[in-house]
């Protein structure tokens, strides 16, 4: 099923590397955006480390906090792509902060008590040259689902390099077939679910 052209996606790139430094996270997340584009989904990326996102659990933490602008783009998108590197077997501190800030959405409901995130899809992108992708995906999906996002079947793609080696995803000469096929499935299912939720929203409780 091809998604309507009006569907949009936003990547939260949670790399620890500021722009313009090359990022494996940015590379794989960009491949996900390209795959979504084949289903009529347009999108963009925010590299969170370039923004002054304050710690906290409110939608706006006051003077200088750039999360409100990020939040506005999240709420305007149909599909949220959370992309993170693996550090010490866990998601980056930037990704964790994004989840903490998204916690504020638990109080953002419509007149019928539904969270504003109920109509939105979330997928995960994880890269790293160490183990941890499955745990990170589980943690992301638990948090995002609690906040109200819907996760499609096969809603995550990851790449782990060989243990105890220093090769990064961006160093590969070509995309591994398993990653490419998983990315294609993720994009098709995310676009499909976003389209369904657009046409048939969740009922009020």
UniProtKB/TrEMBL annotation:
Residues 11-160 form the NADPH-dependent FMN reductase-like domain. One of its GO terms (molecular function) is oxidoreductase activity. SUPFAM superfamilies: Flavoproteins. InterPro entries: Flavoprotein-like_sf, FMN_Rdtase-like_dom. This is Flavodoxin.
